[in-house]
What does this fold into?
Amino acid sequence: MMRRIRTSTALAGVLGAALWFTAADATMQQAKPAGATPRTADGKVDFSGVWVNTGGGGGGIKPDEEGNVTVLSRGRPCHPGQECKPAINFERDSGVRQRFAYGTNVPMYKPEYWAKVEHNDVNGNFVDPEINCYPEGLPRIGAPSKIVQTPNELILLYTHHNTFRVVPLDGREHDPIRSQDLTYYGDSVGTWEGDTLVVDSVGFTDESWLGWPGYLHSNNMRVVERFSRQGNTLTWQATVHDPDVLMQPWAMDPESRNLNPNPKALLTEDLPCEARDNKHIVTRERG
It folds into this structure.
């Protein structure tokens, strides 16, 4: 059976649409972190809204009068005598930047697992679950694009693969059956610690990665997410507990997102496509 995912062409369209969304809505109507934090009728922090990624591109970029966005990136030229095609150094540099994005905060694996992590990284064009159409899973998918909050549920929406999660907030424990399933986003339950919403998830498949550099995990992984809000700024942070493969829990760096104040803001639908590029890849270059 053929699985569906974005092709490179479709991905370019999605990125263009996403960049337009960021530039047009987030930049032109920039939400300010200052101000009172909204609360629900029962006094809880209200996380509802469309949340725009504040890291990476976008910046002050604005679409032209036809709605198009042009982004120019510098790339190292080829060394004299070096055989390379246009943008190949950009691809290599992009791969380096993605590794440095984690800085010194990387998961500390037990010695016997580092060889597998290195194998995943070197051969990522062929073994990365995401490039092979599988869901990103937790915590790799990161912060949600939209949140809908009710007194008993938190609904998390992600533009990537049009993913959704429903997190109960009614005080229940993990479901005894679902928590034993092996899924990409696990069985999740939410509890409040003051103004911080804590989401605890278990029951994962080990087919997903924690991150781009080949970071693996076991199916006994537990992920604890923490949501907080100050004014119009959402902060998401996740900690991975996986004593089967990690020497210690991995507290990931937090992500911040700004509220899109446009009441008509919409999420961009992620386009489906087929994983048909893999058989044509002839290099291990990743970017």
Summary: Strands lie at 49-53, 146-149, 153-158, 163-168, 187-193, 196-202, 222-230, 233-241, 250-251, 255-259. The CA atoms of residues 29 and 261 lie 7 Å apart.
